[in-house]
Design brief:
Layout lengths: L2 H24 L2 H32 L1
Helix pairs in contact: 1-2
């Protein structure tokens, strides 16, 4: 996984989690849903990059 994409994925996860928890505390369901979506997008990005790495490792053999 490239370092840039890895950092981007983790940043989306951390920011999304912070937004989600803060919004729930303030009772803002719409904003909480947006934070959850951002967190999920970060997880999906991370999974995509891990899959690409595994594919490269498989074909290097």
């Amino acid at each position: 996984m490239s370092a840039k994409e890895k950092v981007k994925a983790k940043a989306e996860q951390v920011v999304g989690k912070a937004v989600r928890k803060t919004a729930y505390a303030w009772g803002k369901e719409t904003t909480a849903a947006k934070g959850a979506a951002l967190e999920t997008r970060g997880r999906a990005r991370e999974a995509k990059e891990k899959g690409k790495d595994r594919g490269r490792d498989f074909f290097r053999r």
